[in-house]
User: What shape does this take?
Amino acid sequence: MMFSTVFFVISCIYALFMLYIALGCILTKNPKTTNMQPISVIIAAKNEAQNIPTLLTSLLQLDYPRELYEIIIVDDGSDDDTWALLEQYSSHIRCFHFVNTDSRLIGKKAAINFGIMQAQHDVLAFTDADCCPPSTWLRSINDHMGMDIDYMLGYSLVTWDHQAQSHHKNFERSIYYALATAGMFWKKPITSSACNMVYRKSVFMKSQGFSGIGHIRSGDDDLLLMKMMPHIRKARFCFDPQMCLSTLEADSADKRHSAGIRRASKFRYFTLWLQISAGFVFTYLVLSYIVLFISMLNGIQDIYLWSFSVKTASEILMLITFQMRVKQANLLLLYPIELFYYPLRFIYFALRGTMGNYSWK
Assistant: This one.
């Protein structure tokens, strides 16, 4: 009886956290600005020869005054044809063949930092080489990057040959984007995504850039946001579909597995409140499976039924609040499957991430 009561109380606390996320999504507003701001687009590319042509084709079709933006692509030590392809477009973009000599910065952060130092404008827009921004991308960024906003994220949809897997990945990503939206609104960063990210160079410099986190292989998005937040006036998620871009999913199971481990491996560097929150969610999800197993053996008690009802209702509210705003409400149809599948993935990668040992470019 004591355990069931405790589980019900924990379920209610979990539901309050879901409501906290949903409220952040509801209260996030995207007012438009009439100012035309110059923008520097920065992309770090390593061994992306197969994606560069598609990326550059989309970038060269951007509907924004050409004198108001620059495209900077940093070849981060590729050993394929990435640099040769970039040179073919050197009259349209600023491309750099980068060799890292700074031991304080490792991995992608070194290339990104180099690109930022080359940028001529204060507004910096980032995406990845395996992404495809729409022609409206920069115009939407400008419309919603008000003069008092220092950090902004846009949505991205995974495209994949396997349609069912694409839906699954987009459902999962909608959860992380909802967390990011609420975290930015409440100024308590939870996560971020570098594939569609905008911030001001002046704030990056004021925060001393990647100093202090440059030795970590990952985290050029979420860890940087946590570091920058004390200097940020406003951070917002942009729900405008014209800022949404498409991104390719990794083409092998090993790469997708390593990506999941890499994301979870940053837990030790999170802020204390986020470590506590993530630890609480992890513990609750493990308890949920234990309770589910007990109920399958002995029959479900009313208090467990109420606990799962509270959990389910709060999760659906959080999901539909975000998914409707990004015009992806159809993803909610996957909830009955993801109800069991997603927590297993979360638990697995949380455990696996603490061990590290992942491969990356």
